[in-house]
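Q: Predict the bound structure with nicotinamide-adenine-dinucleotide.
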Amino acid sequence: MHCVVTGVAGFIGSTLAERLLAAGHTVRGIDCFIDYYPKAVKLKNLEISLAHKNFTFLDENILAADLNRLLDGAEWVFHQAAQAGVRASWGELFQTYTDNNILATQRMLEACTRCKSLKKVVYASSSSVYGNAERYPTIETDLPKPVSPYGVTKLAAEHLMCLYASEYHLPTTSLRYFTVYGPRQRPDMAFNKFIRAALKHEEITLYGDGEQSRDFTFIDDIVEGNLLAAARGAPGAVYNLGGGAVITVNEVLRLLEEIVGPIKVRRLESQRGDARHTGAETAKARAELGFAPKVAVPEGLRREAQWMERLLASS
Ligand SMILES: NC(=O)c1ccc[n+]([C@@H]2O[C@H](COP(=O)([O-])OP(=O)(O)OC[C@H]3O[C@@H](n4cnc5c(N)ncnc54)[C@H](O)[C@@H]3O)[C@@H](O)[C@H]2O)c1
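A: Predicted complex:
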């Protein structure tokens, strides 16, 4: 297939692009290196893809790029680009979220309506659309009620995906990712910060009492979910993608201590916008996509720690 991956220099987009290339697909990627975290980190994410003969890269912003050119011949589109991060989405930065998450998605969808070769658009939605959900595990039809402005923008973009499916018959499928981790995880995310601090014998900052729980999902399982959704996702459908085991942040710290040694923790008040718990019901993704997450948290943490060790050793 000829694939387009937006946000291709990011954590998930870059890993997905490599997997598509390894499977024999061609990939055209776009990323404008928004400055949420350093460009150098993203360039490193792109190294392997940039060296591949079937990869082309556009260093451009979706808000300004010629999207007809980007989508020329595209069969599968994986829309991963977004301004990520829950905590920064309050206050003045909100416009960055509406621009990159809502407006950019709407531009992509309009361009997709003109793309005759298109077979599927897969959208990277988020468990943050649920907020403090009405029940756990949460199913796709439960009422979304985000507790952060970020979650509101992800939900708006997801609704746009469904709207273009019903009004323009665009084959869009949205995947609600539950906290993704593993090699290349964004530097603002908890496991990255915890492992980096532990390996450097620095104190880590923990927001809240540590009893908040998450359905952590390993990056390879998310990438696999994207490939399955491209091949089998129903048009206009939304699927939860969760790792399958809900654990607390305190439990993560205990597991990490077994891998990297003792960790010094400084506890601070919980932050506005963080849901207390997340937990995915994945029956729909299992039945319709064949989604079956393979990597459990202890193994996934070990792989992220090994990656971080190599990264720190090379810097
Ligand atoms: N990481 C997670 O746990 C998680 C959980 C739920 C959902 N998601 C979603 O998955 C997607 C990927 O997340 P990630 O963790 O890889 O984030 P990331 O920040 O590493 O990657 C996103 C990339 O998109 C690019 N981008 C943003 N706006 C752009 C624009 N207008 N034009 C071109 N490029 C643009 C950024 O420069 C960045 O490299 C996002 O849509 C995010 O909302 C991530």
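A: The mean pLDDT is 96.
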